[in-house]
Amino acid sequence: MAVSTREQEVLDALAVVQDPDLHRDIVSLGFVQNMQIRGGDVAFDVNLTTPACPVKDMLRDQARSAVARLPWVSEVKVNMTARTVVGRGQGGNTTPLIPRVKNVIAVASGKGGVGKSTTSVNLAMALSQTGATVGLLDGDIYGPNLPLMMGLREKPEVTGVEGKIDPVMRYGVKLMSIGFFLDEKKPVIWRGPMVHGALQQFLRDVDWGELDYLVVDLPPGTGDAPLSLAQLIPLSGAVIVTTPQDVAIQDVQKGVAMFKQLEVPIIGVIENMSYFVCPGCNERHELFGRGGGERVAKMFDLPFLGQVPLQPNVRSGGDEGTPIVMADPDSAAAQGFKGVAGAVARQVSMLAYQARGNFIPLGNLVIKK
Question: Domain 92-355, what architecture?
Fold first, then answer.
């Protein structure tokens, strides 16, 4: 279909607007769609690679300004939309276990006690709040905490002619955990093959439907669960959660080495419990040291995805089943998780483009507070 002279002028004007992550203009990337011109009024969509794009407002403003500079234009309407990019190896016949899931994000840590499950829950919630369709899989077979943290007690139902399990919907997120099927007072005493089988069932026998992101909360360490997950499906990438102190960083190094050996891309490093702000004096206290997450990111040339402060209401929200991004969305911790979610979505899109053969330098992305 031929492009009119004025349409071409608009496209030429928009060619100066660059996606800061993909390092190409929004026209050549195919983001500009559904253009309509009526006299001096111009309207078009900018269709991004994720609804969680943290720079969408900047791109919208730049696109509007670029077109408004044309002498014949009197009004510009920019509608920001998104179609989440399909991650590395995802979709269709290449992933028969979860053919309609676009991206699988593993959340891991080298050691316990760093807030990995809290991060998984709030990451999933924050992605969902941007308009993305999100699932949350409890990959910690031995210590399934996600039902409690999401305020769920009921068991999921088996429905449909194929007998698939419907995940439980909570706060707009689809959730599945072995905690729904076991007596919470009895320990799970399973060998490795049983863990592998359980994860396979949660991928194959759960009706996840269409998902932009499936967040998988892995147990700490380098054991059976991450190995099984990497063998069962191609992961879009892994997020490493740490705290600032050196003891945690030593264990992070092992986790990074494991994912590299499994050929799983590492999305980046999140530093949890970075600091505590005294509610009475507003003084910042770095209880576990300073800058450990950034140091390990630089050490392995990984993106640093951001910091999340230590706040009592993060813990209470998890115990009461209301994650902090919903219970107190304006708090520093909730804003930290939202910033991390945007950075994760951003890196997943970049990794997807990189896997298609488009060169995108990943480098050390640093999200400022």
Answer: 3-Layer(aba) Sandwich (3.40)
CA distances to 74, 78, 116, 327 from 241, rounded to whole Å, are: 49, 37, 6, 22
**Predicted local confidence at residue 367, as pLDDT:** 34
β-strands 24-25, 173-176: how paired?
unpaired
pTM metric for this prediction: 0.88
Q: How far is CA 314 from the centre of its chain?
A: 19
Which stretches does DSSP call E strand in the chain? 18-19, 24-25, 32-38, 41-48, 75-82, 104-108, 134-138, 158-159, 164-165, 168-170, 173-176, 213-217, 237-242, 266-272, 276-277, 284-285, 304-308
Nearest of 167, 229, 217, 164 to residue 192 by alpha carbon: 229
**Residue ranges, CATH 3.40.50.300, the chain:** 92-355
The answer to whether residues 364 and 266 touch, using CB atoms and an 8 Å cutoff, is no
* Residue with token string 């040339």: 301
- pLDDT at position 115 is 86
Token pair of 97 as six digits: 């276990």
Do the bridges between strand 18-19 and strand 24-25 make them parallel or antiparallel, or are there none, so unpaired? antiparallel
Give dist(CA 265, CA 268) in Å, integer.
9
Instruction: Classify domain 5-82 at the CATH topology level.
Output: GMP Synthetase; Chain A, domain 3 (3.30.300)
Mean pLDDT by 10 residues, the chain (369 residues): 82 95 91 95 95 92 97 96 80 68 92 88 96 94 87 72 83 92 69 81 91 94 83 91 78 85 92 78 67 82 90 81 92 93 94 68 36
Please check whether residue 273 is in contact with residue 349, taking contact to mean a CB–CB distance below 8 angstroms: no
How many separate helices (H) and strands (E) can be counted in the chain? 11, 17
pLDDT value of position 70? 96
Strand-pair partners of 19 = 24
Q: CB-based burial of residue 300 (10 Å sphere; 0-12 exposed, 13-18 middle, 19+ buried)?
A: middle
CA 270 vs. chain centroid, Å, equals 12
Q: How far is CA 110 from CA 73, 124, 261, 341, 367, in A?
A: 56, 20, 15, 20, 22
